[in-house]
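Example protein was shown:

_____
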Amino acid sequence: MPQKTAGAVRGPKGQVKQDIKAVNQVRQGLTKMARFDFQNTETAAMTGGENRAEIFCDMGLMYATGRGCDVDVVQAHKWLNIAAIKGCDRAAELRADLAATMSKTDIALALRAAREWMTVH
């Protein structure tokens, strides 16, 4: 029977112990944890190679959902906007959905940031 532990519903007690063990191994450096490396992703997107628009879209989603960082709708809109400009239709749809939840000030900040990024890169 599932139990509630630390605000989450977990399976049997053994699963909770395995999760704690895994966290401790990461802390002790015994195991590596997967990370979303923003610096390398931005560099890869600028240099080409993989589909750049998709990388920018992923960066927008990262900021929109707080995956590996704090949620930042301005940065999310900025990266989704850049992805849309680079040809990602999915990013254009996501950007429109996100913009519907943002203030005009935040949208203006995001558009300015995207424009500045595009000018430099």
